Amino acid sequence: MIWHPYTIQLDSDPPLKIVSAKEEFLFDENGKEYIDGISSWWVSIHGHNHPKMVAAVQEQANQLDHVLLAGFTHPPALELAHELLEFAGWNFHKVVYSDNGSTALEIMLKIALQFFRNQGMEKKKVFVTFSGSYHGDTIGAMSVGGDSVFNRVFQSLLFPTRHFPSPACHDCPVGKVPHSCTEDCLDELEAYLSGHSEEVVGVLLEPLIAGVGGMLFHKPAVLSRLREITKRYGVLLLLDEVFTGFGRTGYNFAFQSAGIQPDMIALAKGLTAGALPLAATLVREEIYREFVSADPLKAFFHGHTMTGYPGGCAAALASLRIFKEENRLGDVKILESYMEEGWAKLRSEFPDKIKNVRVLGAVGVGELFTGKEEPGYISSFAREFKRLCLDRGVILRPLGNVIYITPPYNISKASLQKIFQAIREALAYYKVPD
Ligand SMILES: Cc1ncc(COP(=O)(O)O)c(C=O)c1O
């Protein structure tokens, strides 16, 4: 009866029925335990069913279920807006709530375009994006994503954007090595902006790591240079922190690694640590000011029914409290060093099978050698690999030939070792194609 997401209807294993969860573990209907090595699509940053999260959601359900956010407000939405702005270092002025990463992105794109429209700048309509990026599955979010199996069939519905190669330091698109790099991968983009700035609304990037596109890492210096050139040419810097936000890269938000101030950021996933759906777009004061008008045509007309859902806000507030009370960024540091150790060991055990090992914060990655390149989401070994790990009680979902671990930040060392052991055993089955 359920049409499951990302599921090839005639060629997929039946879904595994999960009935309960605790910490980094999920349990199926037979009581078998699985370590959630990907935090259930990168959300369960404190582990599953954290008692403080559960209590906060229960308490909110007893107090206020829901009220529309147009013409009304409520304490959890107000308090969360303040806490989020503080967590983001007071770089932003307004919080726009929504329900998931795609809608947070759509809102960011629409505010960006209208910011210029409200100033009479009609020509600005182009978004600059990157080839390996992913921003969600709605039409606007697909338009600004890189070409992939996710959006190819919908090409005729998507609005045009200007794509540039993704900055990816382990596989530099312009052939540089770290010590000679001066963010040369952005030269072409800068040349484009210098000639087309009157048409460009903004540059959109997943900061530090492009996730779905293959866990492509870049240096904070890329963010600094992007900020500098976007400012110079009068275009906005829009960051998609849906994956990288809330400690995933070792910072509250990835943009803080470069000490820059983006114009807007989009947040979801770790925002509620997986307890309930909620998303937010954080907006700088200079952007917001262009909407402060009595003219209805200058208002931002966008609002989902469940926008600012009190339970979601209460969950997000509880998660931010846990960050402080349990020193979650400290956990990420420890996890980062364990992952560096684990991946280095795997790399040395399988020098002919694993390459481009890289770790940042709570993201650890290794790529399989593929004789004939078979990257992409629908790679056949990715599915086999997933199955082999599941048999060993570990949940991982490689992106083509890219194997990654994105566990809860407070995963135990023993569980992490089990994940590495499952990868080790699955790799034994892998034969690099000729
Ligand atoms: C960077 C990024 N942006 C946006 C999205 C879309 O988020 P959602 O699936 O909540 O719509 C994702 C989802 O994986 C993502 O990784």
Write the layout of secondary structure elements.
Blueprint: E1 18-22, E2 25-28, E3 33-36, H1 39-42, H2 51-63, H3 75-87, E4 94-98, H4 101-117, E5 126-130, H5 139-143, E6 162-164, H6 187-196, E7 200-205, E8 209-210, E9 216-217, H7 220-232, E10 236-240, E11 264-267, E12 279-283, H8 285-289, H9 310-325, H10 328-349, E13 354-360, E14 363-368, H11 380-391, E15 394-395, E16 402-405, H12 413-428
Describe the overall structure:
This is Adenosylmethionine-8-amino-7-oxononanoate aminotransferase. One of its GO terms (cellular component) is cytoplasm. Homodimer. This protein is of the alpha/beta class and 434 residues long. It folds into two domains: 53-325, Type I PLP-dependent aspartate aminotransferase-like (Major domain) (Aspartate Aminotransferase, domain 2, 3-Layer(aba) Sandwich), CATH 3.40.640.10; 327-428, Aspartate Aminotransferase, domain 1, CATH 3.90.1150. 34% of the residues lie in helices and 16% in strands. It has twelve helices and 16 strands. The protein has helices spanning 39-42, 51-63, 75-87, 101-117, 139-143, 187-196, 220-232, 285-289, 310-325, 328-349, 380-391, 413-428; strands spanning 18-22, 25-28, 33-36, 94-98, 126-130, 162-164, 200-205, 209-210, 216-217, 236-240, 264-267, 279-283, 354-360, 363-368, 394-395, 402-405. A seven-stranded mixed beta sheet has the order 4-12-11-10-7-5-6, sandwiched between helices. A hairpin with a 2-residue loop joins β13 and β14. The protein is globular and about 65 Å long. The model has no long low-confidence stretch (mean pLDDT 95). The chain binds pyridoxal-5'-phosphate.
